[in-house]
Amino acid sequence: MDKEKQYTIICNRKQLSLIAQALEMNSRMICAQLSESFMPPIRDRIWKAIDEDDNYHEKRKIVEDSFQAIKTALWPELHYGEHYGIGRDDEADLGYEMYKQILSKFEEEHEKECLSEGKTYSGNVHTGTPLKLTKEPVIKIESHE
After folding, report:
1. pLDDT digits (tens, 9 = 90+) for 28-76
2. How many CB atoms lie within 10 A of CB 71?
3. Distance of CA 105 to CAs 16, 98, 110, 117, 129, Å?
4. Pairwise CA distance, residues 114 & 120, whole Å
5. DSSP string of 72-108?
6. What are the residues whose beta carbons fall under 8 Å from the beta carbon of 17, sequence distance 6 or more?
7. How far apart are alpha carbons 114 and 121 in whole angstroms?
8. Closest CA to 96 of 126, 140, 133
9. What b/e readout covers 20-35, taking b as 16+ CB neighbours within 10 angstroms?
10. How far apart are the C-alpha atoms of 28 and 33, rounded to whole Å?
11. 4 DSSP 8-state letter
């Protein structure tokens, strides 16, 4: 049996963070979690506009209603507020798993930084072994100075 081809990507933390966000958004989109997928960047844009026209709540309602209309058209079997979760779609699971692995690496680095500075470290949901959902190999993330 041939060994599967491996690839290497070299990026900085900002780029890796953007990859993590994209993985999360893709995974959530597949699971019909539209507001969880797209609201963070859209909310940021709406907040920037609040200083210009003070219509944040109105704009947010328009966006949320539009997401609901899209959701109803694409996933008519889901009721208002419903979505799919992990374990339903292999691609969504892999994307979410990779997202969690990246955030776990960031948290591992944060813990080391705190300990080296003599600060108290308190973990969060990304501390420790990341969520494993698929049979795919764990992505390898190395940091270099």
Report:
1. 999 998 877 676 677 777 767 666 666 777 877 888 888 899 999 999 9
2. 19
3. 11, 11, 9, 19, 10
4. 6
5. HHH-TTSPTT----TTS-HHHHHHHHHHHHHHHHHHH
6. 102, 106
7. 6
8. 133
9. beebbbbbbbbbbbbb
10. 5
11. P
Q: Taking a C-beta distance cutoff of 8 angstroms, is the pair 90, 57 a contact? A: no
Q: Tell me 104's DSSP state.
A: H
Query: What tokens appear for 20 in the block?
Result: 């993590």
The C-alpha atoms of residue 14 and residue 33 are separated, in whole angstroms, by: 25
d(CA 80, CA 82): 6
Amino acid found at 107: E
Residue bearing the bigger pLDDT, 16 or 144: 16
Answer whether 133's CB lies under 8 Å from 97's CB. Answer: yes
> Is the pLDDT at 1 greater than 60, yes or no?
no
Q: Are the CB atoms for 34 and 67 separated by under 8 Å?
A: yes
Alpha carbons within 13 A on the beta-carbon side of 61? 4
- Mean pLDDT, rounded, for 117-138: 89
